[in-house]
Amino acid sequence: MRILAFDTATTGCSAAVWADGAVAAHRARAMPRGQSEALLPMIQEAMAAAGMAFGDLDLLAVTVGPGAFTGLRIGLAAARGMALAAGLPCLGVTTMEAVAEAVPEEERGDGPVLIALDAKRADLYAQAFGPEGAPLAAPAAVLPEDLPDLLPPGAAAATVAGDAAGPALEALAAAGIAGRASSAPGVPDAARIAALAARRWRPGTELPAPAPLYLRPPDVTLSANGGRLRP
To answer: At the topology level of CATH, where does 104-181 sit?
Structure first.
């Protein structure tokens, strides 16, 4: 199985090519903005490093959110365009799943894993996973003080990952829950997205076009006349 995966959903940009059960090429860069200019050259570099053309691929994979509105649109538009041009299926992976995938097994223990991402507001994007990786609830936008409610009742400890791990750990401590910071990267990475896609997709399976996962409306303010031209 040969997969091209990429991510532009948060504060990074990455691309990876998966072939024969392993990452064949990988490119990644921290990038709060500018993914629209960086993504396609990064994909081309990864494909060239793997020695592949688009006709060699079986599947595309991309992050669908939650994340930055503009970043999500960049990644999804690129994925849909490539899927249409190359006649390839495209699988969507959430940012939470991608970050959770990077948490090392030895850090998970037998308790929950809490993913907390910076939402650029007072709240955080968060989701809890079981130690085996299964989600315990849907992703949500919550205030830090409400994070303990995402964990199983009576949970005394949790492993925390994501670029908002700091505030999440403080909130858990205030609730009397022992938080352990993971060594996993705080943002999604295309290599993890490719690994998830390889486990989930079966050749020949039809996939719906990936859609963005928004947990709140975009930060957009309409003009006083609703965007219409003034008379």
So the answer is: Nucleotidyltransferase; domain 5 (3.30.420)
